[in-house]
Amino acid sequence: MKLLSECEFMHRRASLPARINILGEHTDYAGGLALPFATHLRLTLNAFSQDEGYEGDTTVIDLWRAAGGWPARLTVESEIPIGVGMSSSAALCLAVVLCVNGSMKPLEACLEAQRIEHQVLKTPCGLLDQMAMMFAKEGCATLIDFSNQLTQSVALPAEWMFKLVDSGIHRNLVETSYRGIVDDAIQITHVETENQRVKSALGASAQELGLLLNQSHASLQKLGVSLTHMDEQVASLQRTTGVFGARMMGGGYGGMILVLVESSETLPDAQCFHPSQGGFVEEFFE
Question: The whole model's pTM is what?
Fold first, then answer.
């Protein structure tokens, strides 16, 4: 790769997807399992080299400098909703890391993105979001084992049709406590049963997967990361004709509800989501 000093101008563009997690919430920091996939909604960061200084949003510049970024003009365009459990912050941090460093090993990019998110955004996140974005393949979910950080692509059955419903409850990641929510016994039980649900999902029919989603939500309720208004919306969706299952998605306390539906006609106002490609960076020299 050319060194920055060897060219008059460099432009890097990183594109990162939002992610949907089918099963495996609050398992990443406990060495558990998860089954996410990337969506078509994306965040794009453009970094244009310049002689000195930094231009752009203050938070983006803070992340850029924390990652060791060179003098640049930074612009961000994003289709990913903020505060609804689709990992807009992880997408931004990964985009920064990829634009600073160029092509790099996916896990190294994930770890560096996690580091700057902890440092700058003060978000006590695990590695679910970053690994879901960087290891994603079109048409597949990614089975992630956080005990050894290994991944496996799993073709998504055509009958698994997912939609998202916005609960209308949005959250601030900095104010959200992800750990120490309840006593250790409940956390251990949740991780163990959620891991089993991930395993059971592999090869499951849509009806079987729907039951697993419902069970996951019930476990998250016991974990203490749901809210009464969220639970009421999930229960209503679970009773809806054409819905196989539903659960809150993301870290908790609001955000999107993941719904597994029988057909695109179910919940006609909600959009269907299909697995898309993972994150990547492009480089241009002039």
Answer: 0.91
